[in-house]
Amino acid sequence: xxxxxxxxxxxxxxxxxxxxxxxxxxxxxxxxxxxxxxxxxxxxxxxxxxxxxxxxxxxxxxxxxxxxxxxxxxxxxxxxxxxxxxxxxxxxxxxxxxxxxxxxxxxxxxxxxxxxxxxxxxxxxxxxxxxxxxxxxx
Length: 138
Description:
Layout: H1 9-21, H2 37-51, H3 68-81, E1 84-91, H4 103-121, E2 129-136
Parallel strand pairs: 1-2
Helix pairs in contact: 2-3
């Protein structure tokens, strides 16, 4: 007999409130994601490669409201379960990966501020790996 997995009331309420507001839920995201098996397997394989001292690079690109943020939130949750550290920042005209007017510095500064806050708020062990997720919304 298959056991039903109950969603905690806190997660349920957070999911419903987030979806009503049109934003990605902060918790319970695993309960609403569907259809990404192959994509998630590829990202998990990337994590294994990184853990073995490798490196990977992927861009997640899609139309407005196509689920990029939701997908990356699921990836981030899986990655955190694997004891990685994640950082994320949204790309915009004011924060891009390469530019001549200081926009790339804005992106780097945002990521470093998030890293500083992460390390100040959490005690991480010496075996912690850092993964940087960048989501393109433009």
